[in-house]
Amino acid sequence: MSRVFSGIQPTGEPHIGNYFGAMRNYVRLGEQYGKQSLYCVVDLHAITNPAASDPRYLAARTFDMAVANFAVGLDPSQVTFFVQSHVPEHQELAWIFTCLTPVGELERMTQYKDKTAQLESVPAGLLMYPALMAADILLYKAGVVPVGEDQTQHIELTREIARKFNHHFGETFPEPQAVYNKEALRIPGVDGHGKMSKSKGETSTLGILEPLDSVWQKLRVAPTDPARVRRTDPGNPDVCLIFDYHKLFSDLPTIELVNVECRRAGIGCVDCKKKLMEGVTAHLTPIQERAEELRADPSYVRDALAQGAQEARAIAAPVMEEVREKVGFLKV
Ligand code: SF4
């Protein structure tokens, strides 16, 4: 059976875009692949961005990301969930891949260009980021990689690195396939300005662990169909982000009711938002309660991460042995 690998950035509280776009998919794949699905909080990647990896918060954010994923239903006893820096083989393999990868190919990466555009001094780690990502995936010989579409170029490079390694040192790594979840791209920010994104700040996001009254305050003032000026004006749910959210959180009869009543001004926007809030509350309350339980029992989370790292290393160690031998390192 093929393995699944996905890296999760420890960058603050996940929002509903992360939840519907990635986290729910992890749970689904976890049920399908069991221990062969590996999820890794990528703290080594996080430190390539000094602004997002303040040492005062990095450990807490890593811990919180584990809590959030466990709270949405990822069961660490059923999948392999760990922290990247707890498995040093990632760095060892990344170095070997760094030595195989032309600088020109790394400089071509769109994300690298975007991230460095505003920097006066570029950390070498930012350039090597895709080599570390290739190591994350290939260390487990993973065949399935659930990612966002912005990672297409990195996955292509991973496949290229696998081919190059196999060509130089003999058949070792499979070429992984990216599995995209397009739902993530369609979730608009609550401020109405494009896709929901952490980089745009809290006004764009609805956090899955955000207090529900704060969620409501954001929904209350969220933009609706701009053509619907008065309560008596018919609206068009197809251009309204509140209707997009209904499709995520509400049951079918509610979605249908909003779809019909909005168009004939049979429902006002405030009532429509209140109905949405019922779905949001039903959805997020059990997740938030579970997160509270996990935070109250930090040793459970730490033990689960220690166990996950052990399981990951049990897969990684023989792969690294094979790699060291093929690369030609002296064995003593
Ligand atoms: S009734 Fe609902 S779907 Fe229609 S414009 Fe108002 S908030 Fe949007």
Would you kindly provide a written description of the structure presented here, covering whatever features stand out?
This protein is mainly α and 332 residues long. Helix content is 54%, strand content 7%. It contains 13 helices and five strands. The strands form two sheets. Strands 1-2-3 form a three-stranded parallel β-sheet, with helices on both faces. A two-stranded parallel ribbon has the order 4-5. Helix 8 links the parallel strand 4 and strand 5. The protein is elongated, with a radius of gyration of 22 Å. The two termini are 33 Å apart. Iron/sulfur cluster binds next to helix 10, helix 11 and helix 12. The site of iron/sulfur cluster has 14 residues, from helix 10, helix 11 and helix 12.
Instruction: Note the main sheet.
Output: 3 strands, parallel
Radius of gyration: 22 Å
What is the number of independent domains?
Answer: 2
Bound molecules: iron/sulfur cluster
CATH architecture of the largest domain: 3-Layer(aba) Sandwich
Quick one: how many beta strands? 5
Q: How big a fraction of the residues is strand?
A: 5-15%
CATH class of the largest domain: Alpha Beta
Shape: elongated
Q: Give the name of the CATH superfamily of the largest domain.
A: HUPs
Subcellular location: Cytoplasm
Function: Catalyzes the attachment of tryptophan to tRNA(Trp).
Subunit structure: Homodimer.
Pfam family, one: tRNA-synt_1b
